[in-house]
Design goal:
It is a single chain. The chain is an alpha+beta fold. It has one domain. It is about 40% helix and about 20% strand. The chain contains 3 helices and 4 strands, in the order H-H-H-E-E-E-E. The strands form 2 sheets. A two-stranded antiparallel ribbon has the order 1-4. A two-stranded antiparallel sheet has the order 2-3. A hairpin with a 2-residue loop joins strand 2 and strand 3. The mean pLDDT is about 85.
Length: about 90
């Protein structure tokens, strides 16, 4: 289940990186938001309002407990030539 969650999360994050609010919303809410996404409305509106830059996923982590898992992604939206170093490992 953890790998399925990560795959679905990263698919949604790809839409976010492209500032595709509708695609992100669809990816997150497929099946009724089964991953219980925090900040659904604010993230959607952020993606709608951004008019420049591309998102760069710089971290993706998960915090596991016996009966649940919380995933967290960090993604700045930047213009220009600067691209932050990718640190997408989940082993920390």
């Amino acid at each position: 289940m953890l790998s399925e969650t990560e795959t679905a999360d990263r698919r949604a994050l790809d839409f976010a990186a492209a500032r595709d609010a509708a695609g992100w919303f669809r990816a997150v809410t497929e099946g009724g938001d089964p991953r219980n996404t925090c900040g659904l409305a604010p993230i959607y509106w952020l993606l709608r309002l951004l008019d420049e830059g591309r998102g760069h996923l710089i971290a993706y982590r998960r915090c596991e407990a016996p009966d649940q898992c919380v995933t967290i992604g960090a993604m700045p939206f930047l213009d220009g030539d600067f691209i932050p170093q990718d640190s997408n490992d989940t082993d920390d």
